[in-house]
Amino acid sequence: MSAVENRLEEMRTTIEQEIPSDITITEVRYEGPELVIYTRDPKQFASDGDLVRRLASTLRKRITVRPDPAVLSQPDRAREEILEVVPEDAGVTDLDFHIDTGEVVVEAEKPGMVIGRHGATLRNIRQEVGWTPEVVRTPPIESATVKNVRNFLKQERDERRDILERIGRQIHREEMSDDEWVRITTLGCCREVGRAAFVISTPETRVLVDCGDKPGAEDDVPYLQVPEALGAGANTLDAVVLTHAHLDHSAFVPLLFKYGYDGPIYTTEPTRDLMGLLTLDYLDVAGKEGRTPPYDSGMVREAIKHTVPLEYGNVTDIAPDIKLTLHNAGHILGSSIAHFHVGDGLYNIAFSGDIHYRDTRLFNGAVNDFPRVETLVLESTYGGRNDYQTDQEDSERKLKHVIRNTLERDGTVLVPAFAVGRSQEIMLVLEEAMREGEIPEVPVHLDGMIWEATAIHTTYPEYLRDELRERIFHEDANPFLAEQFNHIDAGEDERQDVADSGPSIVLSTSGMMEGGPIMSWLEHLGGDPKSTLAFVGYQAQGTLGQRIQNGRREIPIGNGYGRGRSNSLSLEMQVETVDGFSGHADRQGLENFVRTMNPRPEKVLCVHGDESSTQDLSSALYHEFNMRTFAPKNLETFRFI
Predict the structure, then answer these.
(1) Which of 188, 219, 624, 636 could be joined to 195 by an S-S link, Cβ 3.0–4.6 Å?
(2) What is the pLDDT of residue 45?
């Protein structure tokens, strides 16, 4: 019998000793990081609300209890019983029963009412019906992405269970080495913005953190070929952790499966959905630009199938010697700071991903309170000594001023925007400004993936600020449903109609003007001196957006979206930059993040910024806090123990 089987038998014995004698256990198995207990007596299990919590504390595992399929009631009868238990106001829209696992997926407009206070309604469902409920939200705005992901995972349930069981056995395997050391190898985003990728190595485990592209330089991929990454084979990686869905962190995650990776991806649920949306669009844009994509859509589906969603604050075993906890990063929907606890108190590392330290209209600011952190890997996008962003209120005031001036001269305001994060932030500003009469009520056209990304935001309001979450719960107050917002879905003809129909506001991808429908809008509006091109987000070096910011006015156009354009346009629009809407902390925010960290780290690696930004921030943190700081280059390895 293997070490994993022995451990499962030991835990089953412990469980049977802890539970009442009238409860029968039929199977104990691993599914990913969770321990799943099957029982013939699910109602008795549910009658003691603290039993699962006590078992989890004793075994130090996340535990799920499911009924043995042999004791399940028929789905039709269970449906009636569930609807009797759940309040009608919960708005249940679907019940999906899975006999093989004894689970019922309850989709509802108000999941909180299905869960009940402190989980009381869920316990009532288990106690009355026996089935194990899983609750998901009915999106207030219909999302094709959410629908497709849920349907795909439903179709792949059997294979996914096999994947999770294999992952669980890998996590709980016996440790093979008595050595103790921790290393980080930098595979990208050092002294540059983009292609984020790092490997954490121990004698037992290798974990890849992020795997993204570099905006404006699609040929610059992370150094995945080195032995620390895929050079020794893709399956020498134990896990992938994705901090958030922006392509400079996620674009090449599906590529790992092309090279044979078959392990888990740990991230939040909204990041999983957004990763699917953005990587599929990445492939679509590559095709329109005549480039050969590095992988196909099948690899995106594999990535989704292998994703293990985690909630903020949940401590999760991802390897025999590593525990992972994700915390809110305040950057975009579902973005995370990844905290790794290595060994039995041996070492702790936090990867900031991209962070925004202060609260915004969309999100609470980044978390920086951890049990322990010896080393912090910190983004430095705005880490330069002069990188101080405008206060948010001042930024909003300037944006409204730009809009009013443009509309008064019968122009259109064109905003290149990232589909995820900045677009929704701007939408909230515009909705309030029009409602309060601060700017005229005009159509706000949303092009590219912005509407779909917004729908995903409304699916996961628990990741948003409290007051915004409450507004989304009430359809008549949901700011994203304001009548001014128009989804551009008819392509070039609709864009031409918008350009010809008078003053309006257009939010369009891509945010750095590297392809996408923004290029079509430039053709329609670029020659109009009454209109304004308003930058509200970071423009990376080498991108068209940055070149326009720096004064370039001859713009390549034609041949669809993106590169390979054969004609040029003389840009006559006004060009404005409105700082303060970035999803990144500025220099002061980064310093404050470190200053108020509890506990403060011993070492900081300053990454994800150009050379001067990383070096400036590293020097400043060293002098201000007397800590060891580094501005590493790509392909450096740091040993910490």
Answers:
(1) 188
(2) 86
Could you give phi then psi for residue 481, rounded to 5 degrees?
-100, 10
> Quick count: other Cβ atoms within 10 Å of Cβ 577?
15
What is the structure's pLDDT at 511?
Answer: 87
Q: Which two three-digit tokens encode residue 230?
A: 């895929």
Determine how many CB atoms are found less than 10 A away from the CB of residue 610: 17
The whole-angstrom separation of Cα 302 and Cα 300 is 5
CA 466 to chain CA centroid, Å, is 19
Q: Which CATH number fits domain 175-386+584-639: 3.40.50.300, 3.10.25.10, 3.60.15.10, 1.20.1250.20?
A: 3.60.15.10
CA distance 401 to 266: 43
What CA–CA distance (Å, rounded) separates 299 from 260? 10
pLDDT given for residue 231 in this prediction: 83
> pLDDT at position 566, please?
58
Question: DSSP character for 397?
Answer: H
pLDDT (0 to 100) of residue 94: 94
Tell me if the pTM is above 0.90. yes
**Do the Cβ atoms of 508 and 414 come closer than 8 Å?**
yes
Please tell me the predicted confidence (pLDDT) of residue 614.
Answer: 98
Pick the CATH number of 392-577 from 3.90.226.10, 3.40.350.10, 1.10.3720.10, 3.40.50.10890: 3.40.50.10890
Please report the DSSP string for 366-384 in residue order.
PP-B-S--SEEEEE-TT-S
Best CA proximity match to 228, nearest among 637, 633, 630, 604: 637
DSSP state string for 4-45: HHHHHHHHHHHHHHHS-TT--EEEEEEETTEEEEEES-HHHH
Q: What is the three-class DSSP state of 510?
A: coil
Query: Distance of alpha carbon 581 from its chain centroid, rounded?
Result: 19
Strand partners, 106: 95, 135
In three state form, how does the secondary structure of 521-583 look?
HHHHHCCCCCCEEEECCCCCCCCHHHHHHCCCCEEEECCCCCCCCCEEEECCCEEEECCCCCC
Crossing angle for the helix pair 392-408 and 422-435, nearest 10 degrees? Answer: 70
Residue matched to tokens 């022995």? 6
* Strand (E) or helix (H) holding 208: strand 206-209
pLDDT for res 563: 45
CATH topology assigned to domain 3-157: GMP Synthetase; Chain A, domain 3 (3.30.300)
Q: In which residue ranges of the chain is pLDDT below 70?
A: 1, 218, 475-476, 558-566
Q: What is the pLDDT of residue 390?
A: 80
Crossing angle for the helix pair 120-129 and 75-85, nearest 10 degrees? Answer: 150
* Spatial distance between the Cα atoms of 339 and 369, rounded to a whole number of angstroms: 11
pLDDT of residue 75: 94
The pLDDT tens digits of the residues spanning 562-616 come to: 444 557 889 999 999 998 888 899 999 999 999 999 889 999 999 999 999 999 9
